[in-house]
TrEMBL record:
Domain of life: Bacteria
Protein name, entry field: Heavy metal binding domain-containing protein
Any GO MF annotation of the entry: metal ion binding
Keywords from the UniProt entry: Signal
Signal peptide (from-to): 1-19
Matches recorded under InterPro entries: HMBD
Residues annotated as domain Heavy metal binding: 32-58
Pfam families, A to Z: HMBD
Species this protein is from: Mucilaginibacter corticis
Amino acid sequence: MTKALVVLAFIGLCLGACNAGKDKPAKKKQYKYYCIMHPEIGADKPGICSKCGMQLVERDTIK
């Protein structure tokens, strides 16, 4: 009985590990304005970076 539980637990762990990481990554929002020092910081209108205080610059193109 104990061996059967160990085997079932092992199979469950293996199946769980095989499916890990297959989720699609979340698509990051492309802002019209961004910080050149911190590209993850952005806004849809001109402003100031919340991390360093630099002026946000306009992107050339939005994909």
